[in-house]
Amino acid sequence: xxxxxxxxxxxxxxxxxxxxxxxxxxxxxxxxxxxxxxxxxxxxxxxxxxxxxxxxxxxxxxxxxxxxxxxxxxxxxxxxxxxxxxxxxxxxxxxxxxxxxxxxxxxxxxxxxxxxxxxxxxxxxxxxxxxxxxxxxxxxxxxxxxxxxxxxxxxxxxxxxxxxxxxxxxxxxxxxxxxxxxxxxxxxxxxxxxxxxxxxxxxxxxxxxxxxxxxxxxxxxxxxxxxxxxxxxxxxxxxxxxxxxxxxxxxxxxx
Length: 255
Fold this sequence. Notes:
By secondary structure, the chain is α+β, with helices and mostly antiparallel strands.
């Protein structure tokens, strides 16, 4: 009888021990989950570096707009880094815009027989590009779903004009000459305003406007371009301010 009573007491003690261990285990899991959530919330509130890409519409103004009389498609990429979890960011941006081209089918001289030139079908293209690189200072006070910001930009922009001559032979085309005829650089600075809309923790949609004041530079005036039937190229250059405004839409990725 005493032995049976002792056995029952051992079982009750074992049940109590298991119950206490269960409570401790459950409390440990709950505390661990709460700590993880708190760390995650703190991490989500931190302002992280970002990489942005997008398409742009560049609209030349002032002297530049007198020569390039339309808006032109381009692209931009930017990297921004937060300054010690403040509303300020610094970074760099690089952009390219295609400023159009002039092209004409021409007769290429490919040889000579008995004093007579031998011609082949071909074409000549005169294209213009704009490249921009800036250091960017940004004020972005909010890090939630909606993130407005203001930028200040300082850097330089370049203008190049390239002539490419191609020959068509037996159904295929080959480049027979390529030459950069103009390459000019001017200092540039400006400001901009933008807005980011958060889709999830890492991905945001971004749109922005930039006003870029360009200093005086020499650039090709495409309205003066003439390509003759034998491929001779004639054009004039212009000198003036290289100011433009830019409209941008793209994506931004935080990491």
